[in-house]
Design a protein that fits this description.
This protein is mostly helical. Helix content is about 85%, strand content about 0%. The radius of gyration is 12 Å and the shape is elongated.
């Protein structure tokens, strides 16, 4: 949860470098949520994280172009 909150903060930054770190931290948080969701059989959460990871990858790509 802390990784998700910190990444949200970073993505909202004006600095391109900080936004980039935010998107990568979001991807790490997606992995952590998948690991936890799988362990507790929260498969809807796991599926959600794959969708959010796809959006974060899109954010990484768009941030590089900006």
């Amino acid at each position: 949860m802390i990784a998700t909150l910190l990444s949200s903060w970073l993505v909202a930054e004006q600095s391109k470098i900080r936004r980039q770190w935010g998107f990568w931290l979001f991807l790490i948080s997606n992995v952590l949520w998948v690991a936890w969701g799988w362990k507790v059989n929260a498969y809807a959460l796991v599926i959600l994280q794959f969708g959010l990871a796809a959006l974060n990858l899109r954010g990484v790509a768009k941030n590089k172009r900006a």
